Amino acid sequence: MCKIIFIGNYKGGVGKTTTTLNLAKYFADFDERVLTIDLDPQSSLSEIQVLRHSTLESLDRIPDCETLNYIFDLSIKRIKRYPSLNLKFTDTVVKKANNYSFIPTSLFYRKGIGLDVLAIDMEDRIEYLSILKDYIDTLKNDFDYILIDCPPSSNLITQSAFLMSDYYLIPTVLDSISTNGVIHYIKTVKETYKKYCGNSNDDSILFKHYFGKEPELIGIFYNLIRKQVNYDSADKEFREALLRENIETTIFETEVNNFIDIARSTEVGEVSKVRKDFEDLAKNVLNRVKKMQVAP
Ligand SMILES: Nc1ncnc2c1ncn2[C@@H]1O[C@H](COP(=O)(O)OP(=O)(O)O)[C@@H](O)[C@H]1O
Ligand SMILES: [Mg+2]
């Protein structure tokens, strides 16, 4: 059964995109069939993944109709103007990078209509919130894991990703502003689910039936660690804050250090050959997800 995991945090620069890329590559190395989805209108994940595609060299060479933007654009038009139209998409949008697949998002779609612009046209209704899930459902049989790179902002597209996902993972840097942000993020995910699926009104029943269970937090991990004097106190404070908020979760013992080779490899869509931090993290994340799957 395919599991959908989003990688999120409202703070930028904590390593969401880097993590998505690394987990995709390592999960695939562990023989899992992986698909990534780039929900960031900035398209950085797509931009580095096309570098690993056999023929596409840059994002602007992807035909408009082979991007996630196209799927949203046409689906929004259908819902607004032609609700009875039976709109089907093929898998031409799914591309290969290294040993896994990805769905690109483009900054160049129709000369600059990014996912953020498309999201403005969406309405807070189930037809719009189901666009992404409806499309992904057609591909799910081909994959074991779908990893979603979430942008550091909230709109109906990211909210629909929360609703359709089974799990999520939060990278953070270790300082008090960032760790407070993590707690806020977890609450937002919970509140989003509750808003649509958790009330006992008519629509909630429908939403819950459609989207299933609330996404479960796989855990939090520290990224961009460098020798810092306040490490122990910052870590302790964070754990205490989580307890105060009654958030029970794993903080992964594997942390990812700040290594220039990780940044350099990411820039070209690769994982670091000399630094194994992300490989260890990927192993632990995968093990944990598998355990969560068998737990009641
Ligand atoms: N462990 C790491 N070591 C070195 N550089 C990193 C590491 N993790 C992320 N980076 C770099 O930090 C920057 C932000 O990472 P990115 O994955 O784009 O964050 P986000 O998607 O959360 O905005 C990028 O330049 C990336 O290469
Ligand atoms: Mg990013």
UniProtKB/TrEMBL annotation:
Superkingdom of the organism of origin: Bacteria
Domain AAA: 3-195
CDD domains, per database record: ParAB_family
Pfam families linked to this entry: AAA_31
Name of the protein in question: AAA domain-containing protein
Organism: Lachnoanaerobaculum gingivalis
